[in-house]
Amino acid sequence: MVDCAFGYKTRGSNLPFDATMSATISTIVNIAAYKFFRWDRLESRRDELKSLCKRLELLGTVLLSGEGINMFLAGSRESIDAYLAHIRSMPELVDLPVKESLTDYQPFNRMLVKIKREIIPVGIEGIEPEAEASPKISPAQLKQWLDEKRPVAMLDTRNDYELGVGTFENAIDLNLKTFRQFPKAAAALPPEIKENPVVMFCTGGIRCEKIGPYMKGLGFKEIYQLEGGILKYFEDCQQAHYKGDCFVFDQRVAVDPTLDPSDNSECFACKHVLTPADLESEKYVPSKSCPYCYKTREEQRLLRLAQRQNQILTVASEQRGSTPYENRRWISIPQRCAGMTLLEALCEFHPGYSQQQWLTAIANDEIRAPVAVKESLETKAVSPDQKVREGERFLQFMPGYVEPPIDPNIQLIYEDEAIVVVNKSAPLPMHPSGRFNRNTLESILGEVYYPQKLRCAHRLDSNTTGLVVVARKFAHAQVLQNQFNAGTVEKVYLATIVGHPTWDAIDCHESISQEPLRNGGRRIDAENGSPCLTRFQVLERRADGTSLVQAIPETGRTHQIRLHLASLGFVIQNDPLYLPGGGSREQPDPELQSVAMGLHAWKLAFDHPATKERLSFCTSQTDA
Fold this sequence. Notes:
alpha+beta
C-alpha cells in the first residue's frame, strides 16, 4: 500500500545506484496524486493510460478502481506536463491536486497501470470517501493549535514501522501491522479520546481521507484529517511539534522536515527502517537480514518447524477422505489365494466384506481387471467364478466413498533435509489401506511436502499414538528400514493396560504366527511362530484399575506388544481386537476403532541416514 510518496534514496540504499548518474541525466520530475470519485470503464481507461505512459516514457504506478485513482510517476518535465494535461482533460480530474519533487535520476524500474478493488485497501464495505470525508485542517492551523496547547489528540494512522522513523509529539500509536487493522484498532480507543478534537494524519493524506467516513460513525465529536499529510506539514511548518523523519514508500526510505532524504535505509528482507547504526551491526547482511529480522540458525529452524506444523494441521483438519469421492483401490491376489475363484479370493482377502457385498460390487461393474495399453490404463469386466493366480491385480471402484474420521492433531517434532519425525495422533492410519486412503499420515504428509514423496520407515497401528520417522528420499528410507530390520533402533512404548499385574517386570518370549488371521490380527504360535521378546516394567498402578507399563520390543513382529500383553492376561485399554489370554474378536470392535488405544511410541533412537549421527527423540509421558 502506497501513501502518495515518491522518489528513491540516493545514499545508504540496498539497491544498486550509480552516483555518477547525477551528472549524466536531466532532472526528473516525480509526481504523486490521488482523488476519490466514482467512475467506470476502467479497462478502457487502463489501456488508454498505459499507452500514454509508454509514449511519454514515464515510469511508476497508476492504480485505478471504482472509487478513484492513485498514482506516482516520474519522467521529464515535458512528459509529466503532457500527462497531467491529458488527465485533467477528464471532467472528474480537472482539479486533481498533485505533489511534485525532483530527482537527478529515474527512480522507477517499470510502468504499471493496474485495476484494483480499492486504491487504498481497508476492508470495510460501503465507505464513500468523496461524499463523507472528514473535514480537513491545514498544517498552519494544526501548528497553531499545538502552539496554543489545545486539548487535541493526534492519531497516527500509519503502520508501526513508519512510526519508528518519526511522528508528532504524543501521537497515538495503534500498533498497526497493516492498514486493514486500523478500523478495529480505532474502534477500541477509549471513550475519553472522542470527547476532544482528534486530528488523523498519514504520509500524504490518502489513508485519512479513505477512513474518514468510518471514523465519523464511531462517535468522535470532532474528527479532522491533516490536509496533505505529514509531507505537506513539513513543507509548511518544518519540524514544529514533530519528532524524527517521515517514512516514504520509495527508495529514499525517509525524508527529514526539509524534505531532503534522511540517513535511514530499509532492510531488503523485512522492510524495517534502518539507522546508520543499524547498518554497522553484524546482524545486518545486505539483501538478507538486519538487527530486526536476524535469526540464529536454531531460530530459523524453529520458525520453519512452526510454519510446517501449521501446514500439517491445516491439511489434516480438512479430512479430505471424509468428503464423498470415488475411491479406487488395487487388489493384488496373495499366494494363499492362488487357484481360487475371484469371489473366494476376495472374501479371503477382505473378510470384512460379505460374500453378497462382493457379488453386488462385481454385478455393478465395480471390480474390473486391467488391460495393458500404451497410452492409458483400460479395464474389463470380471466374473465371480473366474480362476485367479498369484500376483494378479484387480481394480476396485467405490463411488461415493467416505472414510472414517481421524484425529488430525499430528505434532511435528523434527525435520531436516533427510527425515521428518512426528508424534502421530490416533486414530490415524499410516498408509492407505482397508477403509482409509486420503485420511492417512502418508497422504497428509505427501500433500504438505509435495513434490517430495515421503516414505514411512516403520509403522504404528492406526490406533497407536507416538513417534514415527519418515524419510524424504527413497535412499534414506532404505537406510532407516535396514536399521529397523537389524534391530539397531531403540524403541520404548508406554502401554495403559486393564488390571494390576502381580509382577513389577517380566520378559515375554511367546512366538507369534507369521500368517494373518481373517480378522487381520495374529495369534500365539509356539510351534511354528516367529521368536519374539518384549520386556515389560510396571511404572504405575492407578486407582481406576489400570496400570502404566513400559514396553521394550527387542523384536519387531506385527501386534507384538498388544498380543504379548494379552497373552499375559492384560489387554491394552481400548484395544479393538485382542482379548485377555491372547485370543481375539472375530472382527475388530468398530467403536474402539474410532478412539485412541492405550499404546504410545514414547522413545525412539536411530542413526541419521545421512550424517550417521545418533538421534534420540522422546515425547511427554502425559501423551500416553
